[in-house]
Amino acid sequence: MTGNGATTSGELRAHNRVRLLRAVHDGGATRTRSQLTRDLDLARGTASVLVGGLTEDRLLHEEPAPEHGRGRPTMIPGPHPHGPVVLAADVREDSWELAACELGGRVTVLAVRPHDGTPEGAFLPLGAAIATHGARYGDRVVGVGVAVAGPVRPDGRVDVSHLRWRAIDVPALLSQGASTSRDLPSDNPAGLPAHQGPAAHGSPGPSDRPAHANLATTDPGPADQRAPGLSGDPTDRPARAEHPGSAECGGMRASGLRFPRQNARDPADRPAHATENPVAADRGGVGAAGFGLAGQAGGDPLSVFGEMIVPGVRVGNDTALAGLAEARRGRLRGVGIGLHLHVDFDLGGVLVVGGRPLGGASGAGAEFGHMALGGPGAGEPALCMCGARGCWGMDVGANALLRHLGLEYGGGRGRGQAEEILARAEDGDEGAGEAVLAVVGALGRGIAALVNAHDPEVVTLSGLGADLLDRAGAELRAAGEPWLMTIRRESPPPIVASALRWRGSLLGAMEAVFDAFLTPAGLASWTGSDTPGNKV
Ligand SMILES: [Zn+2]
User: Fold this and answer.
1) Angle at 513 between CA 510 and CA 517, to 5 degrees
2) Distance 222 CA to ligand 1 centre (A)
3) Which of 71, 85, 416, 435: disulfide with 140, CB 3.0–4.6 Å?
4) How far, in Å, from the CA of 391 to the mean position of ligand 1?
5) How many angstroms does the Cα of residue 370 sit away from the middle of ligand 1?
6) How confident is the model at residue 371 (pLDDT cuts 50, 70, 90)?
7) CA of 233 to the centre of ligand 1 (A)
8) Sign (positive or negative) of CA dihedral 470, 348, 85, 167
9) How far apart are CA 469 and CA 498, in angstroms?
10) Span from the CA of 383 to the centroid of ligand 1 (angstroms)
């Protein structure tokens, strides 16, 4: 075998296990075994042995295809009911969402909660929720991905200028919040999940149940969907801070059930803090070493996520992660060079090259919203809260909509009002219509500048950007045209709505964690084998 670095039969098996799981995951667990066998150019016997081994290791489970003819049913490999789970969170300026994600991309929303705009108000409850649900899933959790609406430094500290967050130590706050979770066993004070090797294969305990089955019976309203983000499901929308608590989907506390960890961790094995060596702190879970091997699995997540500080927890920029998800499951799939823009209260943007968002030298890229792409105005351009002047993001997003109507804005407040402005504009309200046109004009002008610079094949808009495109797509394209170079005007790249809409950041957080897991080293950590491939 050439091109994959595998030299021994064990390494080759490990390589093929990764390929097969990757194909199942990327295909949304919809492809049949025979399709996968053909796509991966495997011998039927080899595929059979691989599937058997992966099933035994709780990594795959086959179900008959819904429709088949006479004879043996066609089997579809998908997630094992006791298999790996990634906890993914999307932290917006006014709320956060936490979900459990299985191989293949099925998402079960665990909690949606508004926050007060302070770092403590956002991350302490999230840390507690991660600990609670992590304990419930037990050794199934292979990592936690957290998307945040701001640049992420390599050590996991985050700046969100609109909220006046400066160098917020997100891993430390999550860890602090986790320590307050009252539902954890007393010998697991920190409770952040880390995979502990194979456990209880034959006797699944309560924490080992399929996530969706649990939620279907104990929670009031989780959103569970096989095709992530593709529906117009209302749960796809961010929670409004104006109705605190209304979107909480309950969990262990709501159900009154307890799900003890099968493998209670040593109390000394609590999450490390930022001052400790991240590699030394990485016991169990998806190791930092796993990331070094992730390139073969479709992209190096280091370009999206900072280094792992708390074991199993990674923090990344929401726009970069939305771009990653769009490349895996959305409109940037198979696209060589794409421009992805994520609009919420302001906007972020990133270039996605060969399926990988360009995260910058330190991982703090994806900040196209802080380029001085604003229109010509009198006097010195306004100062952005990021410290730069004339930032494009000041003119695009919910904040700009509110500002145009003379309403109070900023601080992660006003999501509901911005949605009302969009609706009123559609109903013919003149003031609202002008506000939308002003925002769309600024968006189109900036897109034109980026198209001039980067020559992308396609431009994708997620979040509020997709809503703006739905309502004023023609105006958006017209606004950009005068700002395009002549050579670009002949066939400008299409500007399209994200297939994932508001779900991109959450799904990107999932993808980046699975990228680290779907490696020979990641799978070895799951099976408890020392050498990748020695267990097939
Ligand atoms: Zn700025």
Assistant:
1) 130
2) 36
3) 85
4) 5
5) 4
6) very high
7) 32
8) negative
9) 10
10) 8
Spatial distance between the Cα atoms of 239 and 95, rounded to a whole number of angstroms: 6
Question: Could you tell me what percent of the chain has a pLDDT over 90?
Answer: 63
Q: How many CB atoms lie within 10 A of CB 66?
A: 8
What is the CA(389)–ligand 1 centre distance, in A? 6
Confidence grade of residue 156 (pLDDT, cut at 50, 70, 90): confident
- Measure 106 CA to ligand 1 centroid, in angstroms: 35
Q: How far is CA 113 from CA 82, 125, 342, in A?
A: 27, 9, 21
Looking at residue 93, its pLDDT comes to 95
In the reported structure, the alpha carbon of residue 36 is separated from the centroid of ligand 1 by a whole-number distance in angstroms of 46
More confident residue, 108 or 223: 108
| pLDDT, tens digit, 9 for 90 and up, residues 319-360 | 999 999 999 999 999 999 999 999 999 999 999 999 999 988
Residue 387 Cα to ligand 1 middle (Å):
6
Q: Rounded to an integer, what is the distance from CA 258 to the centroid of its chain?
A: 28
Cα–ligand 1 centroid distance for 172 (angstroms): 26
pLDDT at 518 (0 to 100): 96
Distance between Cα 475 and ligand 1 center (Å) = 25
- In the chain, pLDDT over 70 holds for what percent of residues? 72
pLDDT at 288: 25
Span from the CA of 174 to the centroid of ligand 1 (angstroms): 27
What is the third-level CATH fold of 334-498?
Nucleotidyltransferase; domain 5 (3.30.420)
Calculate how far, in angstroms, residue 346's C-alpha sits from the geometric centre of ligand 1. Answer: 10
Q: Where in the chain is the domain with CATH 3.30.420.40?
A: 334-498
How many Å apart are CA 464 and CA 501, to the nearest integer?
8
Q: 9-79 adopts what CATH topology?
A: Arc Repressor Mutant, subunit A (1.10.10)
- pLDDT at residue number 210: 30
